[in-house]
Every structure is written in C-alpha cells, then in structure tokens.
Amino acid sequence: MRTTRTKRSLAVAATCVMLGGGAAVATSATAASATTTSAASSVSHDKDCRWYPAHWETKWVGGHWQKVWHAGHWHNDWHAGWWDAHHHWHHGYWHKTWHKAGWEWKWIPAHWQQVWVPAGWYCR
Hints:
Blueprint: H1 2-46, E1 49-52, E2 55-61, E3 64-70, E4 73-79, E5 82-83, E6 89-90, E7 93-99, E8 102-108, E9 111-117, E10 120-123
C-alpha cells in the first residue's frame, strides 16, 4: 500500500508543480501582454494622430517688408503752361517718362493669404 500511496502522492505533487508552473507562465505571459498593450495604448493616447488630406487654408500674415519686382513702364506727364520772367507764355505739353524696371523693397500690410497645406499625419 505504501507504494501505491507514494506513487499517488508523487503524481499529485508533480501535477501541482506542472499546474503551478503553467499558471505562472500564463500569468507572466498575461502580465507581459498587458504591459505591452498598456505601453502601446499609452503611446497612442499621449499623441492624438490624425490623417489630414491636402487642402487650402487661410492664414493671417503680418505686415512685412518684401523685395518685389517693379516692371518698367512709360508714364505720360502733363506739364502745365507758365509765364516766364520775360512775361512770355509757354504752352503746356505732354512728356513721356520711362520708369526703369528693377527690384525694390515695398511694405506689404497685414493680410489674409491662402496657403497650400500638404497631406500628412498631424500629431499633437
């Protein structure tokens, strides 16, 4: 009888060890997956990322100096008639003046401007 009892007790002990070890492995696997899941979810909760398609957006631009190209052009000026020092009348006349083309600095006041926003992920 002792041999049967001994065999049974050894079998029960072995089963307990295996079940305990399996439970420990299962618990550690669950804990590891929970840690991974919580870490992944914390990353996704820390940053709220959304996909925005490309679009036009209105943006406020403050006043600034800007170098702009000034195209050359002819300008017609009227010179009015006048009396000279000898009391002679000189008739008025039109005079064409050429304004040279070139770069010039110009003050651009504050304004709304349409800007193109490319598509992409925006995270905050």
